[in-house]
Amino acid sequence: MSRRPWWIEHWQTCGVSVTGPKHESEGLPNQDAWGRFSGQFGAGVVVSDGMGSKPHSDFGSKAACVAVAQAVRIWSKERAATDEHLLRLIHNLWNMKVQMFGTRACAATCLFALVLPSNQILLAQLGDGLALIHTKKRGIETITPDREGFANETTALGVASRVEEWQIQRFQASSSTMLMLATDGIADDIEDLPEFIHYLKKQFRSSSPQARVAHLRTFFQNWPRPYHSDDKTLAVMWTRGRR
């Protein structure tokens, strides 16, 4: 059994997903999902938000997280494979997983962050939400596009017809890197992004893994915003020391 590469130990991950008050009151499941994955290929996190108007969006979001983890493992074994190949593979795997219900019925956004053994970071987003990288030197950089059309319109797995609908960018990791993915239940309500990043870093420095998850879960269940009916999912990766 192979061991994880030593450099992965310099990264920590944290994630939490809570059901929004609206879905709780209606007896509906959480339509968000998140996951983490690691191996010789690297390490990453993924979040997905099932489109609320679709009957099996909760299944679609879970399938998206599994598809990303599986696609990365397959893609990493082919040296000539491009980032576009990875995105197309995610679509193909997701399509197979949701075929029992149909892709339109399972439509879900997909955001992921992948740290490669080369210290490069691949940050990708399809649909709404927020995907960003924060470093001491460069501050906050987000790949999230401006919304177009009506507020509730977005692209997603099961909706996108072109790989160009993805936002994807590579960065170089450093000793102060933090990666954050959030579904729109959080992203749309963040009023001060630098302050929110500072809050997260403070929690990560002062808490054990179990305590920080419990704290974030309580925080998002009591989200201090006037309109917080949506499900909320956050996944974060950060370096914990000089590499």
Chart the SSEs and their pairings:
Layout: E1 11-18, H1 21-26, E2 32-39, E3 42-49, H2 57-75, H3 83-97, E4 110-115, E5 120-126, E6 130-135, E7 139-142, E8 167-172, E9 178-182, H4 184-187, H5 193-206, H6 209-221, E10 232-239
Antiparallel strand pairs: 1-10, 2-3, 3-4, 4-5, 5-8, 6-7, 6-9, 9-10
Helix pairs in contact: 2-3
Give the key terms:
243 residues; alpha+beta; Phosphatase 2c, domain 1; five-stranded antiparallel β-sheet; 6 helices; globular
Model description:
- With 243 residues, the chain is of the alpha+beta class.
- It has a single domain, classed as PPM-type phosphatase domain (Phosphatase 2c, domain 1).
- 29% of the residues lie in helices and 27% in strands.
- It contains six helices and ten strands; from the N terminus they run E-H-E-E-H-H-E-E-E-E-E-E-H-H-H-E.
- The protein has helices at 21-26, 57-75, 83-97, 184-187, 193-206, 209-221; strands spanning 11-18, 32-39, 42-49, 110-115, 120-126, 130-135, 139-142, 167-172, 178-182, 232-239.
- Strands 1-10-9-6-7 form a five-stranded antiparallel β-sheet. Strands 2-3-4-5-8 form a five-stranded antiparallel β-sheet, covered by helices on one side.
- Strand 2 and strand 3 (42-49) form a beta hairpin.
- The longest helix has 19 residues, at 57-75.
- The protein is globular and about 45 Å long.
- The relative contact order is 0.20.
- The mean pLDDT is 90.
H and E string: EHEEHHEEEEEEHHHE
Termini separation comes to: 25 Å
- Low-confidence segments: none
- Average residue-wise pLDDT: 90
Q: Count all strands and give the number.
A: 10
